[in-house]
């Protein structure tokens, strides 16, 4: 982990630099109504397919 005070000082300097640069960037809220990214849609479809198959297996076993 952290070994000495010089390393802590270096880490804090980097964190201060990053935080000072981040204040210049303005946050833009996402625009609603646009379609999602194709990979996100694929992930949702895959998840729903997995849930459907799993529920069918559970129903088969409980009969």
Q: Can you put this structure into words, describing what you see?
A:
The protein is mostly helical and 63 residues long. The chain has one domain (5-28, 36-62). It contains 2 helices and no strands. The protein has helices at 5-22, 38-62. It is elongated and about 65 Å long. The relative contact order is 0.06.
Number of helices: 2
- SSE string, helices as H and strands as E: HH
Supply the number of structural domains: 1
Q: Fraction of residues in helices?
A: 55-70%
Overall SS class? mainly alpha
Quick structural overview:
With 63 residues, the protein is mainly alpha-helical. The protein is built from 2 helices and no strands. The model has no long low-confidence stretch (mean pLDDT 80).
Helices and strands in order, then pairings?
Layout: H1 5-22, H2 38-62
Features of the shown structure:
single chain; 63 residues; mainly alpha; 2 helices
